[in-house]
Design brief:
heterodimer, A: 241 residues, Rossmann fold, five-stranded parallel β-sheet, five-stranded antiparallel β-sheet, 15 strands, B: 436 residues, alpha+beta, Heat Shock Protein 90, 2 domains, five-stranded mixed β-sheet, 14 helices, 5 strands, 9% strand, elongated
């Protein structure tokens, strides 16, 4: 793990560094180095390699600008989509949803909480990173990008796409997610060959099918959701599976 | 000669049926589909051959069936009947009127037979198409309002308009029986009256309804903004009070420091200063983010719902970084969706001990994209979210599901809007993305 701290208050900077060292020694976690920066330019100048082993602890309010840390996070994210970004700042400066969406921040640690909780939260985050580090594989993302809508979702989360005949409204039904957008099923079908048109109104992810109920012509998915399959498509689908 | 007439007739029939079908598709918002059109054309031709003018009734029936297949859920029977009736009747009636005008104004006696047929089969459909274009352009905003409000579709005035149009159609069908120009003229006048009353009806009711709604909205907005101002004033008083205390504290700290009384310094710090983040990080300060909203209707609704949630003891936060100047959607529709999503979040939070609602609006002015995120904590870890959008499924015995069904109905009208819903790790998330 390569840890970078951006904090313009030297006392807090050193306190954070000390905590991190203590936590990692207590848990026997490997770390190469902890670099501390008090000016954004220094940190940005040192951006080199990429990957999930780069961890950035950023303060949001830095001298001269109350959102500077956020700007830095954006630049880190542009440079490295896999880096882990954690904000360490006061409660009033943090915008959890905005930061999470715009720079995929992992977490936000409030400075204005007592030392014990502060340290505990640090440890939880590092724990999470260490675990992820071992299992992390490049995500197989399904990306939808048209002038009408753009989003991405891990392909394995997709169960099926549904449309209402006569409209151009499509609903993506996922494991824990649902996205409603404008498009056409036949266009989506061509985007990935793991997608199968089971019915006039349905396009299914064959990887997430648990079984096919041939009596009632229904596909049952891994999380027990169901969708329709037309009788004449059953054979074709079974042969693919 | 006969062949030429036949071709002319065929041409006229095809042309007119295209106009009828297109008019129907446009006003009922069904996608134009060549397959359905060919069915319509074939049926029109067959029935025209078998039944003559009475085939018009079949045509209306066909269109109504088509509308019924696609729009059964969103639109009621009287409305679909109106679409079909209007499409068939208006095209036929305009045809008859143009034909009559032709007989009056064109010096037919001096023209060859071919020219008059040309007039009837080619020129008159073109005129009809142009007329239809302008009329639809004129009435479509009103039709949209009627489509969105079931109340209008069921009311008696709308039935009366339907009745007038039905009588007009029947009278047209009777023209060949009477073979009488005076009758024809009467029917034309009757149709003109029906059409005018239709236009007046559309303009009047929708306008009234619109005004009424607008007035209600304004009043509501005013009330909400008044609440908002009161809330902001309270916050200001709190801050002011704190500032006063703070200055006093600094003074006593200064005295203690000068005296070197470390015990008193510690006491002041522990008792008072350490607690100040609690005062300053109070939930209500997130209302300040609303100052970035320049759309009064949205500001009013958001402040109203947030204050309501805070009063219920729900930890509520809102993030708006940029100036929010447009929602890339009809404001009324946006407010309806926003209201439903917020109501659901508040409702789901009510029985949750660790309830919180996080709202964020992320504005990407370069992409002209608005992203509204509403998150709330839930007691269940996750749930089959697709179910709650269906018809009237509800989790709590009230309107939860109905609301989301309405959201979906509104979004059908907007191609450049999409809604993401997720429920995992005890967090229910709704993200509405609108693009301009």
């Amino acid at each position: 793990m390569q840890i970078n701290i951006l904090e313009d208050d030297i006392i807090q900077q050193q306190k954070l560094k000390r905590y991190l060292v203590e936590i990692m020694q207590a848990n026997n976690w490997p770390h190469q180095q902890i670099s501390t920066y008090s000016r954004p330019e220094q940190l940005l100048a040192n951006l080199t390699s990429r990957g999930t082993h780069h961890i950035y602890f950023l303060d949001v309010e830095l001298k001269g600008s109350d959102r500077k840390g956020f700007e830095v996070a954006k630049q880190i994210r542009e440079h490295d989509p896999y880096a882990i970004i954690i904000f360490v700042t006061t409660h009033s400066e943090f915008l959890p949803l905005t930061f999470k969406y715009q720079v995929s921040a992992l977490d936000f640690i409030a400075k204005d909480q007592d030392a014990k909780n502060f340290k505990q939260q640090l440890e939880n985050n590092l724990q999470h990173i260490v675990q992820q580090f071992n299992v992390d594989m490049p995500l197989d993302l399904f990306q939808f990008n048209t002038p009408k809508a753009n989003f991405k979702i891990p392909f394995s989360d997709i169960l099926y796409f549904e449309t209402q005949p006569g409209t151009r409204q499509i609903i993506l039904v996922g494991m824990t997610k649902r996205i409603e957008f404008t498009g056409q099923l036949q266009d989506i079908a061509t985007m990935d060959n793991r997608l199968f048109r089971s019915h006039r109104a349905y396009l299914v992810n064959i990887n997430n099918i648990e079984q096919i109920d041939k009596v009632s012509n229904v596909i049952i998915f891994k999380n027990q959701s169901t969708c329709l399959i037309s009788r004449r498509k059953v054979k074709a689908l079974i042969s693919i599976l | 000669m006969n062949l030429v007439i036949l071709i002319h007739l065929m041409f006229g029939l095809v042309f007119l049926s295209i106009i009828k079908f297109t008019v129907f598709c446009v006003i009922s918002k069904i996608q134009w589909h060549i397959g359905y059109y060919l069915v319509f054309l074939t049926m029109t031709m067959l029935t025209a051959y078998e039944l003559g003018v009475w085939s018009h009734i079949i045509q209306v029936g066909l269109l109504v069936m088509l509308g019924f297949t696609f729009n059964r859920r969103a639109q009621s029977i009287p409305l679909i009947y109106f679409y079909g009736l209007y499409a068939v009747l208006s095209v036929s009636a305009f045809g008859t009127i143009i034909q009559s005008l032709g007989t009056i104004f064109l010096p037919i006696k001096f023209l060859s037979y071919n020219t008059t047929t040309m007039y009837e089969t080619i020129l008159s459909p073109v005129i009809i198409a142009i007329l239809q274009y302008f009329i639809i352009k004129l009435i479509s905003p009103n039709l949209i309002i009627i489509r969105k409000n079931k109340y209008f579709q069921q009311n008696n005035q709308f039935r009366f308009v339907n009745l007038l149009l039905s009588i007009s159609l029947l009278s047209y069908l009777l023209i060949p029986l009477f073979k009488n120009n005076e009758y024809k003229a009467t029917v034309n006048i009757f149709f003109a009256i029906s059409l005018i009353s239709l236009l007046i009806y559309l303009k009047n009711t929708t306008q009234n309804y619109f005004n009424l709604q607008l007035a209600e909205q304004r009043q509501q907005q005013l009330n909400n903004l008044t609440d908002y101002t009161t809330e902001i004033e309270t916050l200001y008083k709190n801050i002011n009070g704190f500032r006063h205390d703070y200055i006093n504290l600094i003074i006593s700290l200064e005295t203690s420091i000068q005296k070197g009384d470390i015990k008193q310094i510690r006491e002041i710090y522990n008792n008072v200063l350490k607690k100040s983040p609690n005062i300053l990080n109070h939930d209500h300060y997130s209302l300040g983010a609303l100052s970035n909203i320049t759309i009064p209707a949205i500001k009013s609704l958001l402040s109203h719902k947030i204050i309501y949630a805070l009063e219920k003891g729900i930890h509520t936060e809102i993030e708006i970084e940029q100036q929010w100047t447009s929602c890339h959607m009809d404001t009324l529709d946006y407010i309806r969706i926003l209201g439903i999503l917020l109501d659901n979040a508040i409702e789901a939070s009510e029985k949750n001990v660790n309830a919180f609602i996080h709202i964020a609006v992320i504005i990407d002015s370069a992409q002209k994209e608005n992203r509204l995120i509403i998150e709330n904590a839930t007691t269940e870890e996750t749930s089959p979210i697709h179910q709650i959008f269906k018809h009237r499924v509800t989790t709590k015995g009230n309107d939860h599901g109905t609301g989301l069904h309405n959201v979906q109905q509104i979004l059908i009208e907007y191609e450049q809007a999409h809604l993401e819903t997720a429920h995992a790790n005890h967090i229910f998330n709704q993200t509405l993305v609108t693009q301009g």
